[in-house]
Amino acid sequence: MSGLRIEVKALRKAFRQTVSGSEVLAIDRLDFVIEPGEIAAVVGTTGCGKSTLFDVMIGLDAPTDGQLLIGGSEPYADFDGFRGKIATVFQQDRLLPWRSALDNVCLPLELAGVPEAAQRRRAAEWLERLGLAKFMQAYPHELSGGMRQRVAIARAFVLQPAILLADESFGHLDEVTAAELRDTFVALARECGSTAVLITHQLEEAISVGDRVLVFAKPASVLADIRVSDWPRAGHAELRAAIQSTLQGNCLDPRLEPASVLASAFAPGGALHAGA
Amino acid sequence: MLPDSAGAGNGVQRGRRFPREAIVSLLVLAALWELASRNAAIIGIPPIALPGFARIAQSLAGLTVIDVAVTVARVVGALVLSFLLAVACAVAMYRSVAVERYGYPLVRLLMAVPVISWILFAVLWFRQVEFRIGFVLVAVCGPLFLVDMLASMKGVSKELRDMMRSFRPTAAQFFGKLMLPAILPSVLTSWKINLSLAIRVVTIAELVGAVTGIGHQLSVAQELFSVADVFAWTLILVAVLFLLEAVLNRIEAHVLRWRP
Q: Cβ A83–B258 below 8 Å, yes or no?
């Protein structure tokens, strides 16, 4: 299934606190567009509303104001219309402990009404691709954290969804496993042509996987929308520093101003340099 | 810190090995009973009150299997009915806050009614014996199943519920593939508790309002002042309970084989 366009227009999400009754603003006038097949990384400080955006994108939560459209429809309002189109990789693997790895990967296919033989064949193929051929019948408690997250990735990709969402999915793993899984995730997302959104608090991860990096203010609004290809590879350290400075000050670092980015792109080694 | 032998994991291992200590305890108890029976006159108890094992064996040989079957059928039938009603009510309460707010106080009210009151209501309200006993068992066990199940459903983690919802299941898929498997361990525990309760309740109900079943036979034994018969029927009741628990344990071992 090819990717769908994600369009966020003046999105606002507020929560009412149970005890005090006061309103807490999690997302404040969020605007951005992610084109079909693009991979966008969303970075922001803890509590800036990234996970709230994740819930609104999945359709688990309704926006207070504004719109979030995926392929022209609202995932919350048209909840069932998105069956089989959105898949998620959560922070923790969230595997069902009573199901084997194979049965966990079959779950989305079962829910989508795919015939049983096809379910098992497709689930087995994805587990094999993710290097878990020998562990198909293992229960989640018999697998390591990295292996469990692989099963969760297989569960997301088995639907070959139009939209892939990952919420800090690799942050709890060791660096080597996280990098390996991140690369796998991106490669598979590109192969499937899915539009992918990765929510992360790790800047290295955001820069290395995303076509774009959306830097969120607190409460969530877009402080910077960075096209990573505009930055020369040699400039990634500076990009990282600029994003960090933006996050710390909760305002746009001058290095991320469009004019600066353009200059950076035309600089030697930049994407638009005459010799590039 | 607890000694190693107090750990839950060891409890499982203890269950698997030969129950030497349990057998020794039972043999000691049986020997003391037999000793007391043989010396009843010396210790000032009427011999009829402490029958020896030979007399009890005679009573056991004369027991009617049909009464055992009737009691077991009543217990199992009523538990299945209670469980199904409880599942339906728990699902309705889980899905609707309004249903829970109106329904839960009634459930608490039902739970507060003493068993003997239910038996008297059943005798006064209904003429049909099976209906009386079924009513009492469902009134006692149903609310327990319901409360346990509702609490377990609410205990299913939000993470798993959100994961499941992200794949857009139908209501039936959500309950069938997530909620029911997730609450299965506590459902089985609830079955064990209700089984033991139902055996006791059915005995009292049969004692008061039936002409068949172990409870009725206990009533007959009491009228005949036959302690041996009471002992024999009690042994059968305990054996039936252990047997049904063993069946539940086998089911539990099979359906929860995924647990570490």
A: no
Residue B157 sits in which domain range?
Answer: 64-255
**3-class SS of residue B34:** helix
ipTM over 0.90: no
Identity of the residue in A90, A97, A98 whose CB atom sits nearest the CB atom of B163:
A90
Which stretches of chain B sit within 8 Å of chain A by CB? 159-160, 162-163, 165-170, 173, 177-178, 181-182, 184, 256, 258-260
* Total number of domains constituting chain B: 1
pLDDT at B6: 43
> Quick one: fold of A1-71+165-276?
Rossmann fold (3.40.50)
Q: Using the beta-carbon criterion (under 8 Å), do A80 and B169 form an inter-chain contact?
A: no
Contact B258 A80 (CB under 8 A): no
Task: Give domain status of residue B45, yes or no.
Answer: no
Longest dimension (CA), chain A: 61
Over residues B91-115, the pLDDT tens digits come to 999 999 999 999 999 999 999 999 9
CATH of residue B243: 1.10.3720.10
